[in-house]
Prior knowledge:
Radius of gyration: 19 Å
Structural class: alpha/beta
Number of domains: 1
CATH class: Alpha Beta
CATH superfamily: NAD(P)-binding Rossmann-like Domain
Largest sheet: 7 strands, parallel
Number of helices: 10
Strand order of the largest sheet: 3-2-1-4-5-6-7
Amino acid sequence: MRLDGRAAIVTGGASGIGEAVVRSLVEAGAAVVVVDLQEAVADALVTELEAAGGRAVALVGDVAEESTAQAAVALALERFGRLDILVNNAGWVRVDVAIEADVADIDRMLAVYLRGYFLFAKHALPPMIAAGAGAIVNMSSMQAYRALPGRVGVQSAKGGITAMTRQLALEYGPAGVRVNSVLPGITMTEKALHDYGQSATPEELELRRECYPLRRFGRPDDVADAVLFLVSDRASFISGVDLLVDGGISVQLAESLVFPPFRRLWQRASPGA
């Protein structure tokens, strides 16, 4: 799954899943524009990658602003002469139940996800269309299909992302552009570890881990590997799909976890269940 000679933009690329995606693409031979609000973190990542022989450049900006999308595309074309890949990964989340949610928080989530992903796709598509090929991956979530308490804003945004993915895949498939989304389950980035350390006890987190059929949480590299596959030539006939990278949690009904007869059958199949 080599990407030699290709150029990419990764939003929210300085840390977490985005950082893992950037590293994966650079290791595969791509040159990457790292878009993030964390200037020092993005600069440090680019410096490290270039010291190891990779090609990358940082751009500081808010993905909800059209000028950021325009600048990122212009930078890719200026520095690398082309744009083949876009990974819309940037995110912003606040957790609250609907009747208590701050409208400004809802607006921000929708702006970062739906407006931001749209803007980057809008400006990345023309050079891809001109080249006759391109690949876009939108980072969604298995929560686009399965509801969790306190997430009305992010759930709505993620559902919109999956719909946007299908729409773009339809409209720009004839131009040679493939558009897919990746839907991770819980992924233990440094931020996730910190946040769950504040909101859950170790015992509660262990209980959540046991809900996953594979009995572990995701790692950033799990998601990055899926993205690398989708933007590579190995996925040349895949477009408009939602690729679940969630350890199998979305395949089960809640009863499989709590109804004793189902649990006993599960344990017969997999003794560790």
